[in-house]
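Sample 3 of the quickstart, ligand NAP:
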Amino acid sequence: MSTYVISGVARGIGFEFVRQLSANPANTVFGLVRDKGAADKKYQAEGLSRKNIHILQADVTDYDALKATSEYVSGVTGGKLDYIIANHGAVSDLSAFDNLSNLAKDPVSLEQDLMESIKINVLGTISMFNLFMPLVLKGNGKKAIAISTGMADVDLVAKYDVQVSPTYAISKAALNMAVAKLSAVLREQGILLMTISPGFVDTGNYNRSLTPEQQKSVEGMVKGFARYAPHFKGAITPEESVRLTLSVLERSSIEAGDAGSWVSHYGNKQWL
Ligand SMILES: NC(=O)c1ccc[n+]([C@@H]2O[C@H](COP(=O)([O-])OP(=O)(O)OC[C@H]3O[C@@H](n4cnc5c(N)ncnc54)[C@H](OP(=O)(O)O)[C@@H]3O)[C@@H](O)[C@H]2O)c1
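Result:
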């Protein structure tokens, strides 16, 4: 039996984490969402009204709300938690398909966009890890992961000219360092912290109408991906991504040298 707290579970990869982990009735899954009413409806509509799923409301940038969820979890589990999965992530509409050179022409908007990305993707994760860590220290799993991205790989971006989503990529690169820094504190206490990229996953985020220029940026990215990974045939499903990511989580350990590391859903630096 294992207990999990997972953020960003209203849709996409987070929803799939909950689906797969709650399929084992011995597990208890606490899912964090920003809108509990909407999430409850979605889980019901998808036939996922399992007794071992607890949907809790907290925006990860709201420290007090996050703290309240950690207190709720502690009350249910007797002060223990096995795993944290900080899955939440935000890519803004402003920057998702644009490049940094264009965005820099409006420094006020760029600053807002970058600060918002850092607030959610970096500070939100640090708060989540810190608030739930006292429970994880008493649990059996002793692992905390944040979901990062291969888009934060400086070598990949530089070699294949990946222009899009600059503020997202900057914030996820900062997230990787934040998790390494927390690992530097917590490894000694037996907690494995690491970041895992889930691959390129079809969660519907590219199914929106794009301007011709945005379309060109996305095509440029996909062409770069094809050069980087000739086997790459397109996005994988959330089902495959979560299965592979959970397998990395399961087999990683402090003893194997994984503390503070940043790896892909394959457990290495192959992002696609
Ligand atoms: N899909 C990919 O190809 C891909 C590739 C690499 C990395 N990733 C990473 O994988 C994770 C999940 O991605 P996804 O594709 O499933 O994304 P998604 O469909 O956009 O879902 C993101 C989730 O994060 C939540 N979230 C955003 N801001 C939040 C905040 N301030 N507080 C709490 N929750 C917040 C969203 O909540 P709401 O539902 O309330 O909006 C949503 O549930 C993210 O960290 C993403 O960066 C995805």
